[in-house]
Amino acid sequence: MKVQRFWAGWLRVTMGIRTIIDYEEPLDPNGIYIFTPNHSSFLDILVAYKFIPTYFHFMAKASLAKVPLFKIMFWRTHIPFDRSSKLESSEAYNRACADLKKGYSILIYPEGTQNKVKGTVLPFKSGAFRMSVELQVPVVPVVCLNNLEILPHQSELLKPRPGGPGKVYIKVGKPIYPKDFNNNPYLMSDFVRNFMFQHLDAYYETRSANR
C-alpha cells in the first residue's frame, strides 16, 4: 500500500494535480469503511489514495488489470471483475465482504461504470449498501467534483477545453451507519446519491456565477 500511495502521488505531481479535500469530519485511520465515490475519470483511482486514510482495496473492472502497473496492484491486492458476469460479480462481492472482515476498507463505485457527463450521477448499483447492512460497516459518501474536467475521456481531448493541470476538489462526507437507515440499503443509496447531487450542483452553480 505504501508503494501504491507513492506511485499515485508521484503521478499526481507529474500531472500537475493538487487535491483539495474537504472532510465533513475526520476519519479514523484505523477504521473500517466502505467508500462510495462517484466515477467520472481515470483520475478517480489516483485521488482515492489521497482521500482514503486507511488500508483499502477497491473493486473495479477487470480490464484495468491489463494496464501495466495496475496489473501488479490488482492481482496482488485489489478486486478486478467482469461486471457482465454474474458469477464474477458474486465472487467479487464475497471477496470484498471477506476483506472487510479482515479489517480492510473497501472502495466501490456505486455507479458501476464511468459517467462521461460532468455534473451528473448515474443510477446506483446496490452492492455497496447491501454489504454495509450485511456487515454493519459504515459507508463514507465521496464526491469528486471536477475530475472529468482535469482528465477528460479520450473522445473529449481534441475539444476546446481538453483538461490539464489544476486543482481537483473532493468532498468527503461523514460516515453513515445502516442502523440510522433502518438497515435499508436503498435508503442509504438514496442518501449517498443525493449527497453527490447536492455538492455537484453547488460546485457548478458557483462556477457559473464566477464566469
Give the strand tally: 7
The level-1 CATH class = Alpha Beta
Order of helices and strands: HEEHEHEHEHEHEH
3D shape: globular
> Which band does the percent of strand residues land in?
15-25%
Number of domains: 1
Low-confidence stretches: none
Distance between the termini: 41 Å
The CATH superfamily appears as Glycerol-3-phosphate (1)-acyltransferase
Taking the sheet with the most strands, its summary is: 7 strands, mixed
The CATH topology name reads Glycerol-3-phosphate (1)-acyltransferase
Report on the structure:
With 211 residues, the protein is of the alpha/beta class. The protein has one domain (2-152, 162-209): Glycerol-3-phosphate (1)-acyltransferase (3-Layer(aba) Sandwich). It contains seven helices and seven strands, in the order H-E-E-H-E-H-E-H-E-H-E-H-E-H. It has helices at residues 2-14, 43-51, 70-76, 86-102, 127-135, 147-150, 185-209; strands at 17-23, 34-37, 56-61, 79-81, 105-107, 139-144, 166-172. It has a seven-stranded mixed beta sheet with strand order 1-7-6-2-5-3-4, with helices on both faces. The radius of gyration is 17 Å and the shape is globular.
Write out key terms for the chains shown:
7 strands, about 210 residues, about 15% strand, 7-stranded mixed beta sheet, about 40% helix, globular, Glycerol-3-phosphate (1)-acyltransferase, alpha/beta
Summarize the structure.
With 211 residues, the protein is of the alpha/beta class. The protein is 40% helix and 17% strand. The chain has helices at residues 2-14, 43-51, 70-76, 86-102, 127-135, 147-150, 185-209, and strands spanning 17-23, 34-37, 56-61, 79-81, 105-107, 139-144, 166-172.
